[in-house]
Amino acid sequence: MSGGMLALVSLGPGDPAYIVPAAQQALAAAEVVVGYQGYLEQARPLLRPGQEVRAWPIGSEVKRAEEAVTLAEAGRRVAVVSGGDVGIYGMAAPVFEVLRQRGWDGRCPEVAVYPGVTALQAAAARLGAPLGHDFCAISLSDLLTPWPVIERRLVAAAWADFVIALYNPRSRRRPDHLRRALGIIARYRQPETPVAFARNVARPDESVRLTTLAEADPAWADMLTLVIVGNSESYALAERMVTPRGYTGKPAGAEPSAPPHPGVETVYPVVLTRVAGAPVVVVGGGQVAERKVRGLLAVGARVRVVSPEATEAIRAWAAEGRLVWEPRPYRSGDLLGTRLAFAATNRREVNAQVAREAAELGVLCNVADAPEEGDFHLPAVWRGEGVVVAVSTAGADPARARAVRDRLAVVLSETDAEG
Ligand SMILES: C[S@@+](CC[C@H](N)C(=O)[O-])C[C@H]1O[C@@H](n2cnc3c(N)ncnc32)[C@H](O)[C@@H]1O
């Protein structure tokens, strides 16, 4: 059957006045309206008599999408509705998933998406101008996204100084997510950073509460709340939140201080057993970096070298596809997603920056020219049949570590030969 039509319609945050005219027309033109019962209630004033309404309980998105696609495939004019914007944590993605599974050709049924006012925009309007600079949205629901992925995004967004909007901040099933999220963000923002709790925006019982990161109580949020955390420049003004369009030179968060040099009595030797395939960044392309890279390639690490220059060996490994060489200076963000970092340039300030940013991201770092700034040293190693011996002076005296290693190697080789 042909002629079917699927309109993905955004209902805005609540008040029908926030449904854009194009979406209203699409809704009026539909024969069948499919959606979560709460949202259908919200759209009730715009539905016309004679329209078939298929209301679904919460949490049945895929089934809803399947029903809507089936109806449209049968030639019906169907509207699928979502609160806020249909494309933002809404029904658009599940509908397209179903279309993909059914081998949709892009024409039949005809599909059109009608955008709307998402909760973030509605809350921002109430607050004044919290989104005056770069911002991002992160959902704290781990129903479809593993929590470690959510944490990684929180770290990246907080570290990069985005204004952060938290959708799905807290529910009965996951009462602790918002507290954990604010805790992560607080590692990168000052305690006085403005935070807003916008609940039921554009609905009859709307409430907006402005506070600070230090004072924010996660218990104020529920599933009807959107939380906005300002960036390092955001400020409160007469119960409003403003994020300037640019940076005014205010310091962006506390600088983590380097720990004192650990003596051997405080080192905690570990053996990394899963370096094969792990993403590792080596910053620097000289002889020191080459030595680190050689050892990493030997155990199968996924190495990325960031350096404007590189030794012959590093260039050759890159040409063979054994590592990725990015021939450019180090820049902030290069360590995101990496497991280990090596600061091995001949420039002190670059190595210090790498060490600082690794610490901010929780990435373990080795700092060639200032071992005490990093988290680990590479010991002198001897590998025998089924055994590895590592000797460390906690980075204080590598020559001595090598000498001890060599003496042990002689003894161990003899023992092995005898055994
Ligand atoms: C599944 S998401 C749906 C988002 C929706 N598609 C949108 O664009 O706003 C549900 C979350 O959106 C936020 N939300 C939706 N409507 C809201 C409103 N009127 N006021 C405050 N937050 C709202 C809440 O964080 C809620 O937990």
Describe the overall structure.
It is elongated and about 90 Å long. The chain has helices at 21-29, 37-43, 61-73, 92-101, 119-127, 147-159, 177-186, 287-298, 312-319, 348-361, 398-418; strands at 5-10, 32-36, 52-56, 77-82, 110-114, 128-129, 135-139, 163-167, 194-199, 207-212, 225-229, 235-237, 240-242, 279-283, 302-306, 324-326, 340-343, 364-367, 380-384, 387-391. The protein has 4 domains: 5-117, 3-Layer(aba) Sandwich (Cobalt-precorrin-4 Transmethylase, domain 1), CATH 3.40.1010; 120-242, 2-Layer Sandwich (Methyltransferase, Cobalt-precorrin-4 Transmethylase, Domain 2), CATH 3.30.950.10; 271-373, NAD(P)-binding Rossmann-like Domain (Rossmann fold); 380-418. A 5-stranded parallel β-sheet has the order 3-2-4-1-5, sandwiched between helices. It has a 5-stranded mixed β-sheet with strand order 7-8-11-9-10, sandwiched between helices. Strands 16-15-14-17-18 form a 5-stranded parallel β-sheet, sandwiched between helices. It contains 11 helices and 20 strands. Helix 3 (61-73) packs across helix 4 and helix 6 packs parallel to helix 7. By secondary structure, the chain is an alpha/beta fold. Residues 13-14, 82-85, 88-90, 118-119, 123, 167-169, 198-203, 223-226 line the site of S-adenosylmethionine.
